[in-house]
Specification:
40% of the residues lie in helices and 24% in strands. It is of the alpha/beta class and 449 residues long. It folds into two domains: 127 residues, Urease, subunit C, domain 1 (Roll), CATH 2.30.40; 287 residues, Metal-dependent hydrolases (TIM Barrel). Strands 1, 2, 3, 4, 5, 14, 15, 16 and 17 form a nine-stranded mixed β-sheet that branches. Strands 6-7-8-9 form a four-stranded parallel β-sheet. Helix 10 links the parallel strand 11 and strand 12. Helix 3 crosses helix 17 and helix 14 crosses helix 16. The longest helix has 17 residues. The N and C termini lie far apart (78 Å).
């Protein structure tokens, strides 16, 4: 289009304009004095204000002056169990299997649908206020989690967690997972997606995993599974099948339908080859893996092999806090000490893992994970003035990865809708939420006898 025709074209009106911030983005890099214009659900234009095509775009709705702030994409939590906020701090200082078998499973046996709703709503609020706009979740009563996500205003990829000890009980869970997909995949204006969620190789049978793969292929669904979280899990797989969990997943067809694998702490070079070959997305959960003494995942090796590695928090029962700033920081520094190399996993790569790489691991990078024109307007405004840990700052990626904390989050938009303002969620009655989760947690964790 030549200049005369361009000048005659009617301008596009932006319902949202965020002006003057320092844009920090995994694809666009750092852009000073930036301008983001949205319609509002999708980004119309983003870049330096000096380069904005004023003859094509004009703000007509909300205008946000953001000088002195960082503008970044909403972070994507690639693995969580949202309703486990109700067990926060209940089962600390235990390794994975005793933690699960003696503390968590007994509590989950008491869990009711309405408990899941309130626990998931708390998780959604906590994440939004920490700049996390989307999360992948595996748990029970997932229709209730979906309701909570819709109410809070965020995004989620939901999977009904399924176990199958060999008695056929997993078939009911699989039927519920299929119903969840039919009822909720693409719901809430596309803010809800659904996967199938076999819990893990050690909590299911090989035949059941094959059945899940078949149903996922028929539905066009992806799969979310725990994989090689610790040595004990690997030993159980070797004892049962003579193979690693990754080999079992590959042979049963799970990897072929599109897979999100949580943890991958104890993966061998051959396992990493399989993950790369089948384009499996990995959710790295450094805080949870440390707290449960599971180990430190070989993130650098997986990334070098071409594996997409995102970041997750896991559930609040093992991580305690559902925020990604700490996950970014630990992901980076753990690889440095593990490899005895201070240059390993630099800040910009850790930032990408928490945003665009997590979105890729979820199969959602076409819409979220970066602030590019045409994508959903899921944006976070971070104000360094709110956190002394950000005084001074030199490199924005370094500041956000190594120094930032949730207290610095000023505002959050999801699909162009402001859901957090002045650091507080504006979509949920927080006082009622606090009352409900307190009494429900007390009921679930009561000691018998």
């Amino acid at each position: 289009m030549d200049e005369r025709r361009a000048a005659a074209s009617p301008p596009l009106e932006a319902a949202l304009a965020i002006e003057g911030a320092t844009l920090v983005d995994p694809e666009l890099g750092v852009v000073e004095d930036a301008l983001l214009l949205a319609d509002p659900a999708r980004i119309l234009w983003v870049g330096a204000r000096s380069q904005a095509p004023a003859w094509r775009l004009r703000p007509a709705g909300e205008r946000v002056g953001a000088r002195g702030r960082f503008l970044m994409p909403g972070m994507v939590n690639a693995h969580s169990h949202a309703a486990m906020t109700l067990m926060r701090g209940y089962a600390d200082d235990l390794s994975l299997m005793p933690w699960l078998e003696t503390r968590i499973f007994p509590v989950e046996a008491r869990l009711r649908p309405e408990d899941t709703y309130w626990g998931a709503l708390l998780a959604a609020v906590e994440m939004l206020e920490a700049g996390v706009t989307a999360f992948a979740d595996m748990y029970f009563f997932m229709e209730e989690t979906a309701r909570a996500v819709v109410e809070a205003g965020g995004r989620a990829v939901l999977a009904r967690g399924m176990v199958e000890p060999g008695d056929g009980s997993g078939e009911r869970a699989l039927a519920e997972a299929e119903a969840l997909f039919r009822d909720w995949h693409g719901a809430a204006g596309g803010r809800i997606r659904v996967m199938l969620g076999p819990h893990g190789v050690y909590t299911t049978t090989r035949a059941f995993l094959g059945r899940v793969a078949e149903r996922a292929a028929a539905l066009g669904a992806r799969v979310h599974i725990h994989l090689s979280e610790n040595d004990d899990e690997n030993r159980r797989s070797q004892a049962t099948y003579g193979k690693s969990p990754a080999e079992v997943c590959a042979e049963t067809g799970l990897f072929q339908v599109g897979c999100l694998a949580a943890h991958c702490v104890k993966v061998s070079p051959r396992d990493i080859e399989l993950l790369a070959e089948h384009r499996v997305g990995v959710a790295h959960n450094p805080v949870s893996n440390l707290k449960l003494a599971s180990g430190i995942a070989p993130v650098v090796e997986m990334r070098r092999a071409g594996v997409t590695v995102g970041l997750g928090t896991d559930g609040a029962a093992s991580t305690n806090r559902l925020e990604m700033f700490e996950e970014m920081r630990l992901a980076s520094v753990l690889q440095k000490v593990r490899l005895d190399d201070a240059s390993a996993l630099p800040a910009r790569e850790a930032f990408a893992m928490a945003t665009l790489e997590s979105a890729r691991a979820l199969g959602w990078a076409d819409e979220i994970g970066s602030l590019e024109a045409g994508k959903a307007c899921d944006a976070v405004l971070v104000d360094p003035a709110r956190s002394p840990a950000l005084w001074p700052h030199f490199d924005p990626f370094s500041a956000l990865v190594y120094s930032a904390e949730p207290a610095a989050v000023e505002a959050v938009w999801v699909a162009g809708r402001k859901v957090v303002e002045d650091g507080r969620v504006r979509t949920v009655d927080v006082e009622r939420l606090r009352h409900e989760v307190t009494r429900r947690a007390a009921f679930l964790t009561r000691e018998e006898g």
